[in-house]
Amino acid sequence: MLDIDTIRNDFPILREKVYGKPLVYLDNAATTHKPQSVLDRVINHYSRQNSNCHRGAHFLSEQASAAYESARESVRSFINAQSPAEIIFTRGTTESINLVAESFGRKFVRADDEIIITQMEHHSNIVPWQRLCESRGARLKVLPMNKKGMLKLDRLSKLITENTKLLCVSYVSNTLGIVNPIREIIDLAHRYDVAVLVDAAQAVQHIPLDVQEMDCDFLAFSGHKMYAETGIGVLYGKQRWLEAMPPYQSGGGMIGNVGLRESTYAELPLKFEAGTANAAGAISLQAAIDYLQEIGLDAIVNYENELINRAVESIASLEGVIVYGDFPQRCGVVSFNLENAHPYDVGMILDKLAIAVRSGNHCAQPLMEHLGISGTVRISLALYNTPQEIDKLIAGVEKCRDMIGSRYVTTK
Ligand code: PMP
């Protein structure tokens, strides 16, 4: 059992009022709030040990470097990577995926090779692959979804050819909340010698991850969606891939020796971390991991599962509401529309009730096209949300329906 009152108390922003009302924050897939312990660790870093990592031999620089590397070790242990060399700090999921597209792409993707993505990806896991394919003369293939919002996995083995180099797939869809059967997908791709990149941006805060057990080749996530600061993220990569891949960006910190005509590069993981490190971000990520582990990941998973099931059942039971996706395992997210009401109108009315949701295409336009709509209202949960907040949402959606949708409602 989680002590939700204590947990809510850990997040200062949850004490803020919006339009004079208590905030109901249901936009956690966009970004989560930060507990006091994360904020304190960042302030402590800047107040007591701020210095440039891996640059100086003086006391503070060594302290900052040690703290940064200790954060890397926390991430390694959190996702059970084999070695800290496999943990690259980036700005977030987007940069992690761009790093692979640029570096893996330069080394391993040639004309007529193929990259497979899926129809449900976030734009961050689509556009870098389009650009790579364009620059290499490679082909982008798409694993489609069915009407229920599930990937058509029976098509995957037919899509793969001997030219397929990489499959890029999200663990959890940011729009539908479907949990893809990631082990099954990775096993299948590996049977054909295809490497797999997992976009775990919407999984890492809800599902315990074990990259060795998953056997993924790459995995990307963002700190800000798991209670840490913005501007910090992670790329996990199997060491043998990262060793073989060329640097992504170049400059200070990623070098061995620099001559005027040529240079050598640092060992992993620094080879992929050009420029001054975001030490405060990495430390905030370590603090967020500590926070989650102190509460207990199993307890969080159980609580969030109950909450999301309650949310989806209550929303689906409302007349005149369409819930998108019909699948066995859902995590964190519910997308819906009020019949004949624009999602932005629903979002605006909910906002006036101090309920923060997201309205729009959720950076997943191809998925919207598949659903035949331009957008949805999306709620996304975090460990500090409560059943009472779901009740407020339901009352809010009913109010929206009375204001803008009632004329059109068809009884289920
Ligand atoms: N992939 C998924 C599934 C996401 O939900 C997001 C964030 N909405 C991203 C990638 C991009 O994350 P970021 O903006 O933190 O780089």
Overview of the molecule:
- This protein is α/β, with parallel strands linked by helices and 412 residues long.
- The protein has two domains: 139 residues, Aspartate Aminotransferase, domain 1, CATH 3.90.1150; 256 residues, Type I PLP-dependent aspartate aminotransferase-like (Major domain) (Aspartate Aminotransferase, domain 2, 3-Layer(aba) Sandwich).
- Helices cover 40% and strands 17% of the residues.
- The chain is built from 14 helices and 17 strands.
- The strands form five sheets. It has a seven-stranded mixed β-sheet with strand order 4-10-9-8-7-5-6, with helices on both faces. A four-stranded antiparallel β-sheet has the order 13-14-17-16, with helices on one face. Strands 1-2 form a two-stranded antiparallel ribbon.
- A hairpin with a 2-residue loop joins strand 1 and strand 2.
- The radius of gyration is 22 Å and the shape is globular.
- 4'-deoxy-4'-aminopyridoxal-5'-phosphate (PMP) binds next to helix 4.
- 4'-deoxy-4'-aminopyridoxal-5'-phosphate binds next to helix 4.
| CATH evolutionary superfamily of the largest domain | Type I PLP-dependent aspartate aminotransferase-like (Major domain)
Just name the CATH architecture of the largest domain. Answer: 3-Layer(aba) Sandwich
Spatial order of strands in the largest sheet: 4-10-9-8-7-5-6
Record field, number of beta strands: 17
Q: How far is it from the N-terminal to the C-terminal residue, by CA?
A: 36 Å
- Rg, Cα atoms, Å: 22 Å
- Report the mean per-residue pLDDT as an integer: 96
